[in-house]
Structure formats: C-alpha cells, structure tokens
Write a structure and sequence with these properties.
The complex is a heterodimer of chains A (115) and B (117). Chain A has no helices and twelve strands. With 115 residues, chain A is an all-beta fold. In chain A, strands 2, 5, 6, 10, 11 and 12 form a six-stranded mixed β-sheet that branches. Chain B has strands spanning 4-7, 10-13, 19-25, 32-38, 44-51, 57-58, 67-73, 76-81, 90-96, 107-108, 112-116. The chains are: A mainly beta (115), B mainly beta (117). At the A-B interface, strand 5, strand 6, strand 10 and strand 11 of A face strand 4 and strand 5 of B.
Chain lengths: 115, 117
C-alpha cells in the first residue's frame, strides 16, 4: 500500500523567506506525484505534478518540486513566499497504471506567511 | 481546467436523519469518481471509489450501508450518509479524472462540510 509522509505540520515564515516543504512516499511501483494547495474555504487546487521526464517540475505561482527517486522524495520549494501563499499544502501520490487510481494524501502542511 | 461541482457546500442535520451529497463533473464524463473524507487537521482519506453503472468499492473500515454511493450517470455521483450521527461530522470531498488513463489530473469538488447535531 502507498503512504505519504509530510514532515512539517505547521510552518511559519516571513514574507520573502524561502520555502521548502518535505514529502516522502512509500510505494513499490511507479507513481505519479502531486502537490495540491487548499486556500481557506476553497477547492483543492493543483500546484504541480510529476509523471515522468525532468525530475524538476515547475508549477503555478512560482512553486517547483524535485523528484528524487533514490530518496522517494518530492519536496516543494518556492524561493520567496508571499502573504497570499498562506494555505494548506498536500503532497499526494497515485500508482501509475492504466485506469483511474485514487490519490493517497499526506497529512498536509499549514503554511502561515507573516508580513 | 475541468470543473467538478459538489452540492451542498455545507449542511447541518439532526442525528438519525440522512443527508445526500452530489458530485457532478460539469464539462467531462467520469466513469470513476472518488469520495474522500477529511477530519480536522488531518489528511484526506479515501472512502470509496464510485463506478458508473456498477457497485462502489469501499475502503476497509468504511461501512457501505452507512455511506451509500450511487453513480447513475457519467456526470453524477451521490453519497448518502444514512442515519447520521455526530461522529459522521466531517468534510467530504469528491474527485473525478477526465479520460480513462491514470496519468491525468484529478479535479476536486469544493467539499461538503457536514455537521450532525
């Protein structure tokens, strides 16, 4: 069975600070990897995803993530956070094979950006 | 991107009553939809896989007679919480993925916050 571990429950940063949120997964096969963001009172939104190819993936709003296969990691980064980045961030994986497969989510990391 | 609409956004019901939550894919067909549950300060946990035209597949520990799922068309899945109790209070989210290949993005509804009093 797959599992996802997010190391930080709550991260507090000042504006313009750099961000890195850790994500490790456990699965014996090939996976797709995702980072979702949930702003207060809103849908889950996809930040970025990795299926194959370049392990450094760039997403929306200046976010990026790097897939390191040997470490089973997919950490999320942003060089300079803004107050508007305050949200809950979820790392997720699903097994890569034909047909729809559900996502397995990490517990989420709450990011609070202060002015 | 594709849109998944969930209704209602929030509902309060009395203990012992039933509540129906709808999940619609507005601009694509979805033979499979997923229902998740999110407890406060916790992650989304998969409850069941909703399959159009056939029975839903439930995750271990999820009571199929309590959480009735019906996927009557390619754009609509419903989750009915029967005989709701306060411990069923939670945030329920559905998702759907356009297409039949696993390597595509899942789109989520806005979620339904259920409070059972």
């Amino acid at each position: 069975a797959q599992s996802v571990s997010q190391h930080n429950h709550h991260v507090i940063l000042s504006e313009a600070a750099s961000l890195e949120l850790g994500c490790n997964y456990s699965y014996g096969g090939t996976v797709n990897l995702f980072w979702y963001v949930q702003y207060p009172g809103q849908h889950l939104q996809l930040l970025l995803k990795y299926f194959s190819g370049d392990p450094l993936v760039k997403g929306i709003k200046g976010f990026e993530a790097e897939f390191i296969k040997s470490k089973f990691s997919f950490n999320l980064r942003k060089p300079s956070v803004q107050w508007s980045d305050t949200a809950e961030y979820f790392c997720a994986v699903n097994a890569r094979h034909s047909g729809n497969t559900p996502l397995v989510f990490g517990k989420g990391t709450r990011l609070s950006v202060i002015a | 991107g594709a849109v998944v609409s969930q209704h209602p956004s929030w509902v309060i019901c009395k203990s012992g009553t039933s509540v129906k939550i709808e999940c619609r894919s507005l601009d694509f067909q979805a033979t499979t939809m997923f229902w998740y549950r999110q407890f406060p300060k916790q992650s989304l946990m998969l409850m069941a896989t909703s399959n159009e035209g056939s029975k839903a597949t439930y995750e271990q520990g999820v009571e199929k007679d309590k959480f009735l799922i019906n996927h009557a068309s390619l754009t609509l899945s419903t989750l009915t919480v029967t005989s709701a109790h306060p411990e069923d209070s939670s945030f329920y989210i559905c998702s759907a993925t356009p297409g039949f290949i696993g390597n595509t993005e899942a789109f989520f509804g806005q979620g339904t916050r259920l409070t059972v009093v």
